[in-house]
Each structure stands twice: as C-alpha cells, then as structure tokens.
Design a protein that fits this description.
Elements: H1 12-17, E1 21-26, H2 33-42, H3 53-60, H4 91-100, E2 104-114, E3 125-133, E4 137-138, E5 142-154, E6 160-173, E7 221-224, H5 227-236, H6 247-252, H7 263-278, E8 283-291, E9 300-312, E10 318-328, E11 333-344
Helix pairs in contact: 2-5
Length: 362
C-alpha cells in the first residue's frame, strides 16, 4: 500500500482515474447454457425462458441468459496456465484499496440497467469507469471512502446489454474484530426425500398492467439457507472470494458470523422473486438494491414485495415498480432493500421482450 490510510490525501494518479475508461476486456469464454442452468438452479428459478426452448422461441426469439447473470460473464477463471497472479473482477475496486491504503472494503449498493438480452454464444466485453470518490467518511465499520464504479457490458455486435453500477466503501477497521465465534452445532442433515413435482408457478401473461394497483402485495418467497445455498450461489456467479465458501476466513478476516450470500447471487434471488410473480413476459428493466446485513446458513430468508408504482412510458411500454425487502431469521433482521422496475404487458397480447432500440428505455 502506498497511501497513508483513510485520512490521507488522494494521490494525483487516483484523481485522474475519475471518468477514465480502464481495463477494457472480453470475457474468457462465450455465454453458455451450462452456466445459465447452474445460475437458475442456485436460486431455483423455473422461468421457462431459461429452460424451455419452445417458450423462449415464442417470447424472446430464442434462449436468453437471466438478466441477473450480467457480471458472471466478465468474472475471470480462478486459475489459468501461465498466469502467476490471480486475475480479479472489478480491478478498479482493488486498485483503490491499494492506492488509498484501505485494507478492508465492502460493496454496499448495486444498481443495474438491463438493455438488449444476452444470448448463448454472445461474447461479452466490459470496461470499468470510476465515477466518483468521496471525502473521508466514518461509519460503524471504520473510516474510509466511498467510491462508485460503472461497468458497461456489450456483446460482439457492440450492442449495449447492460450497465452495472457498484458503490464500494474502503476503510480502516474501527476496532479489532471480535474473537472467533465458537462453531455452531451442525445443522440437521438436509432432507433427501424427493419433493413431489410442483405445478409451474408461471403462466404467460399472468400480470397485465391494468390489473395492478399501488400497494398490491407479491406472494412471499421463503427459503431455508444452508451452506450449500451460499456456496452454490458463489459458484454459479463465478465468485471465488473466500468469505463465500471458507467459514474461518469469513469469521476471522471479515468479522462475519459465517459464510454469507454474495452480491450477484442476491441479485439472482431478487430477479427470481419478481419474475415468479410476473411470469415470463415480465422483462426486468432496472434493479437497485442496498445490502444492510448478511444472509447466513441457518437463516430462513424471506422476500416480500409490494407494487410502488404503475406507469406507461412515452413509447407505450408498461412498467411496474416493486419495492422488495429481504429479511432473515425471524423476519426481524432486514438484510436487503431493493427497487425493481419491470416491464409488464399492457394488454394480454403485448410482449415487452419485443422492444429494442429506442422502444426500450429501462
């Protein structure tokens, strides 16, 4: 580290990064269906757009990837022949930690706008742009700086497929982490009895704009989180950071209670929750969420939502704005708050997935 820490002046080099396009690159491999299915399996997302070629052909002109998988395609392999230093995703984030002398960092907020669908075979390219860097701030975690990083994603035709915006906080810890917590008693083994086949939760055109009203509640989603849930979510999003699979690291290095759900997997749970309600004709437009606490093995995670807005934009596209909360434990612990803007049919024969170019404004 070359800076003195949280209160040190920003080095001139770092100041020049603001607004600068850095680390342009193309993903190590094209979008492929194995990862699509693994990502869906990690959150039990049964949307037919990702599993049923006939439904995908009728609705989206062929198979697509879940919009929430955007960051998956630019995450590097954990290891490659000839590479001596592990390549990291969102390298600007780690550069800031190093140059500002801030040993710890978290991602507090995430926002993503979904543009053209991502399809199997696409080669996704990205870059990273530091949008802003705050003055020193003190929070309950410690003293440091907030930064905002934009990551635009484009396919091989140079079409914009999404823009993800991350807010990070790099800091010097306020105090030494608590002593290692005793390892809790092992949870009962997960049931191995096969579940009865459930009827699909979706029906094409299930939600139509005219049927919605502000205050409408979405069906709640409950999920009993296990270590497998957390590790599968990290694997499905190609997130190799140890706090999502190594309990000792999570407790001793991060001061957490246990391993915990990662950011892109939470994004996938949010997508599944809202599109379970809309059905496959619901097209995600924009998602903004803030993580206030972590979700751990042993938690019962509950997602609840309500319709906060219903409108039609200038192109005639119908939109529902949904406020979502993710709670854990006995519902008293609020972990994540989110706002999800999703396009829904304005009539039974409308299909938001048919919109592109200036007819699609997420």
């Amino acid at each position: 580290m070359t800076a003195a820490g949280a209160g040190a002046p920003v080095p001139d080099e770092v100041a020049t990064w603001i607004g600068q396009t850095r680390y342009p690159e193309t993903a190590d491999f094209p979008v492929e269906r194995g990862y699509i299915w693994t990502a869906c399996a990690s959150v039990e997302n049964g949307n037919p757009l990702y599993w049923d070629d006939k439904a995908a052909g009728e609705i989206t002109d062929g198979p697509i990837a879940p919009p929430s998988t955007l960051s998956l395609w630019f995450r590097p392999h954990h290891w490659q022949p000839g590479r001596t230093i592990q390549k990291l995703p969102l390298q600007v984030h780690f550069d800031l930690k190093d140059r500002l002398g801030l040993p710890e960092a978290i991602m507090s907020d995430s926002e993503v706008a979904f543009h053209e669908p991502v399809r199997p075979g696409d080669a996704i390219s990205t870059s990273q742009v530091l949008r802003s860097l705050s003055e020193p701030k003190t929070t309950r975690l410690g003293t440091g700086r907030f930064w905002v990083i934009d990551v635009p994603y484009r396919n091989q035709r140079d079409e914009l497929v999404g823009v993800e915006t991350f807010t990070g906080f790099g800091y010097v810890r306020a105090e030494a982490p608590a002593a290692t917590a005793p390892r809790p008693a092992a949870a009962p083994a997960e049931a191995t009895t096969p579940r009865a086949a459930a009827e699909p939760r979706w029906t094409a055109g299930q939600v139509v704009l005219g049927d919605l009203a502000i205050g409408d509640a979405l069906p709640a989603l409950d999920h009993d989180v296990t270590a497998t849930t957390v590790v599968l979510g990290a694997l499905a999003t190609r997130d190799w950071r140890p706090m999502h699979h190594d309990r000792d690291f999570a407790v001793e290095r991060n001061g957490a209670r246990d391993i915990f759900l990662n950011t892109p997997n939470q994004q996938a749970w949010l997508e599944r929750f809202v599109t379970d309600w809309t059905g496959p004709l619901g097209r995600p437009g924009r998602l903004r969420f803030r993580m206030r606490d972590s979700v751990y093995p042993g938690d019962t995670m509950t997602l609840t939502g309500r319709v906060d807005g219903v409108d039609t934009d200038g192109t005639g596209c119908g939109w529902a704005t949904v406020a979502v909360e993710v709670r854990a434990g006995d519902m008293s612990r609020l972990c994540t708050i989110a706002t999800f803007r999703i396009a829904v049919p304005t009539t039974p024969d409308d299909n938001p997935w048919r919109r592109s170019g200036d007819q699609w404004a997420p």
